[in-house]
Amino acid sequence: MKNAAFSYKPGSSFLHKCPAWIKILLIPFVSIAAFGFAPAFAICFFVLQMILAFSLKFSLSEQLCDLKAILYYAAFLIFAKIAGRVGVSLSGGNFDFSWENLPKIVAAFFCAERETWFLLLKLFCVMQSASLVFKTSTSLEIREGLETIELFIRRVLHLKSKGCNSKNAPVAQAISIFICFIPQVSKNWQQTERAWKARGGKKSIKMLFVLLPVFFSVGMKQAYNSARAIAVRQ
pTM here? Predict the structure, then answer.
């Protein structure tokens, strides 16, 4: 059974034991650093993230599953860039393609689009950071981490209510429900897709038309049940 995107993977590493609120707070700083510093920082940081992920025994397929959205975006962006360049060359009448010149054409394209590659690399860094947080923190730990942050802010701003529980952290509660629903959505799609394949179905346009209504129905039901559970606790 494949792991769903951004799903928790049990472990006893230092990152698993690190409080969730620390990991949550590090993501904005990591994102700012990745986009604000020189591209060399993003390259080194991404390599370190990959080494850390492998040291935590996250397989390459598990990492690519979390980075899938960026991979799709990268493929679309590269295709659009290539199509744009070919269109400009054809309109100018200076498009001279041959298999002998292919290495030179590819090298020239990659050199001309360095800013695009650096942007994609920075997006990979941010996504990998979020992936490490999700894979080393349970949904409960993420919710408690967000509540810790909000309750601290409330104390600093003198907005604290009586008692310290999730009822006094409504913003954290709403954010945690949204965040923790991300891996659940991935799990729902995998379960729906496996059910389709178990009945002899194949990947096709027909599969999307049949499964998408079921997928949304399951998601809406889970969201409704979660809302009712929260209302009962309050």
Answer: 0.67
